[in-house]
Amino acid sequence: MAALPFHFHNRDRERRSLTEALQSSRAELYIIYGRRGVGKSALLRAVLNAQGFPFLYYRGVRRTLPLQLAALTEAFRAAFPGMFLPQPFASTSIFLDALVYEADAREARGDTTPVCVVIDELPYLADVDPGLLTVLQHFWDDTKRRSNLKLFLCGSYLSFMKRQVLDESAPLYNRRTGAMKLEPLDYAEAALFFPNYTPEEKMVAYAVLGGMPSYLEQFDPALSVEDNAKATILRPNTYLAQEPDWLLLEDLRRDVVYGSMLRAVAQGVRKPSEIARAIGRDSAQDIGPQLSTLQNLGLLVREVPITEKRQARSRNSLYFLSDHYLDFWYRFVDPARSLVAQEMGAEVWDRRIAPQLHEYVSRPAFERACRDFFWRSLRAETLPPNLHFADVGTWWGAGDREIDIVAVDTQAKVTAAGSCKWTNAPMDVSEYAALQSSLARADFGDIDPYLFLFSRSGFTDRLHALAAAQAPLRLVLIGLPDLYAV
User: Fold this and answer.
1) Which whole-number Å values give the CA distances from 14 to 29, 47, 473, in the listed order?
2) Cys-Cys with 124: which of 60, 96, 228, 475 at CB 3.0–4.6 Å?
């Protein structure tokens, strides 16, 4: 398969892992899963093309088994033109036997090029071939000692991949040689799609689109965020305009409860009992299964104060949409569907979105980006040398007490805390005092954390002077350019 003309951004760590698998001296059964549109196929194509290996790529679809086997046969013929196939594969077992035959033929003629196979959207093929995973189990047990066979199984339906492929009761459990959950890009990786944007524009684009590559590539980097949104989100029949509905149709059969729950959360309803009431249900128990499903699909994320993460249960749980674009769409676009359908998207932006945009960027996008900054800085080794942490999150307590960023070590001791302000005015010393006051009222015990202040609009001279007078790096000031310098 020839190299494809697409731009591939970042994924350096993931590419290294997959390259090592392709270059290893053993057979590989590698599992890759993540939401549809997160870039699984593009990642594999980029790595395989970089190695120069021909490969078989097959994407499962919602079709009957005979139709899928016919398509699988055509993919095989294209990838391995030297093998004559007079008729379509009668079963997936015969397809796997043909892979072994190709591997044997290469070995016999001294060809060290591995047989590389990508089965994308595995759940769709397994839906119509119930015995597929068991067939794969027996196939792998018989062929795992071949060094020239590399099999990559991919899937977007997260609950299927976890339960049927990765779970300890699944047929392929303990047989995989590697597994990778591909996450959306973080704020800095997403910014690579917009190299000429200012740091502020990059953050606004991240707040609107999130980190899904399939969403990011819909924007034209030569246009402003506003113009892009009007052209690709606030117009009928575009990919981004239709994606949320297609997502529910694909994964949830368009059950109205799920869309209603996502819209409620996007509007700021966070607690399970309140979400239930917002969609006309009596209690949190009435939506328990739906909450679990949306979490398994990676659409909702449950957050608790970071100091309670180790607890088996927490009554302080809040729910957020994990995907910024879905959050943006359900908050601003879904309520204005009729206007968008009448091609009045510009009015929706001007009257509904623009007045609230910066408040929307502030939370959760900017706060999430600031938390991601900690992990990026840890990998880059640019944090204060004595700052150690094992997790980063947020904290809240009774009386509307909140701390935007809290980092804890392996013993759950607070080692760093931060405040994030997406405002027009520079941060002043009052924000430093407010963070200290919040830490004192939170009663984290005997701690001496590093303090971080993150600001959209920079810092006053007084605050710079205060930071310089502190012990080295005990108070760290991070502006928008600093966020993108790591």
Assistant:
1) 16, 9, 32
2) 60
| Contact status, residue 51 vs residue 150, Cβ threshold 8 Å | no
394 and 306 belong to one structural domain? no
Q: Which two tokens stand for residue 7?
A: 């731009």
Q: How confident is the model at residue 253 (pLDDT cuts 50, 70, 90)?
A: low
pLDDT of residue 4: 34
Asked whether the beta carbons of 232 and 238 are under 8 A apart, the reply is yes
Structural domain of 401: 383-483
* Within a domain: 145: yes
Amino acid at 275: I
Tens digit of pLDDT for each residue in 68-82? 999 999 999 999 998
Question: Structure tokens of 116?
Answer: 């590389």
Whether 1 shows a pLDDT value over 60: the answer reads no
CATH number of the domain enclosing 304: 1.10.10.10
Alpha carbons 402 and 406: distance in angstroms, whole number? 10
| Three-class SS state of 64 | coil
- CATH number where 400 lies: 3.40.1350.10
- Render 304-328 in DSSP notation, one character per residue: --GGGTTSS--TT-EEEES-HHHHH
User: Which DSSP letter does residue 205 get?
Assistant: H
364: cis peptide before it, omega within 30°? yes
Domain contains 369: no
| In a shared domain, residues 160 and 118 | yes
Neighbours of 2 (CB within 10 A): 6
Asked whether residue 472 carries a pLDDT value surpassing 90, the answer given is: no
Residue 430, amino acid: S
The verdict on residue 332 lying in a domain is: yes
Mapped onto helix, strand or coil, the DSSP state of residue 476 is: strand
pLDDT digits (tens, 9 = 90+) for 398-430: 777 899 999 999 999 999 999 999 999 999 999
Number of domains the chain contains? 3
Q: Are strands 178-181 and 450-455 parallel, antiparallel or unpaired?
A: unpaired
Q: Are 109 and 144 in contact (CB under 8 A)?
A: no
Task: Give the phi and the psi of residue 284 in degrees, each rounded to 5.
Answer: -60, -30
pLDDT in tens, 44-54: 999 999 999 89
Q: Are residues 258 and 292 in the same domain?
A: yes
Residue 92 has pLDDT above 80, yes or no: yes
Amino acid at 486: V
Give phi and psi for 118, each to the nearest 5: -115, 120
